[in-house]
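Morning!

As promised:
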Amino acid sequence: MKVSNYLETEATLELPGVLKREVINASDGAPNSCMRVFELEPGSSTPSHSHAWEHQVYVLSGNGVVEGLAGEREISRDSVVFVVPEEHHCFKNTSKETLRFICVIPLQ
Amino acid sequence: MKVSNYLETEATLELPGVLKREVINASDGAPNSCMRVFELEPGSSTPSHSHAWEHQVYVLSGNGVVEGLAGEREISRDSVVFVVPEEHHCFKNTSKETLRFICVIPLQ
């Protein structure tokens, strides 16, 4: 069993204004999926892209939008987002506070 | 893409004082894992048990303990817990507020 605070995991700067922490991954013995925590600074966004794997997202704090095939949807604390495989998607922080969310993906 | 608030998902009473919501599951098209949100009322706990699959847990609010092979560890908001396959584990709310956490498991 691993017990930690998410801040104990080293952060990597994925893009300007976008921090990522892999809080549970294969190095912990995870056999199936990886749990990451993202922090987007105000005005920042993830690239609009698609890939073969899905995203399971839970918003921890902040406000923003997620863009998918059906357009933009607002997200805030306690929002749940499921991005299906191959769907174009993009997360944007449209607020003045950090947008923080969990994103679980299958191990590649 | 599915976007919702976790409260929009119907809750089931798993045990006295233990609510479960499957906020992302196979019915949403999830191919690999299931995201659940648990709410434990003060004094409540999940049973001490083990199983072949792992847990990826993120604590959203409240305080409590998780019991594993190495004994009890305190958990609170932003705690991350990885329970390895076959490990005995038990979550307990030791506070006076609801203990709320995400728990991701592989699809069975």
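Chain A has one domain: 25-106.

Hope this helps with the figure draft.
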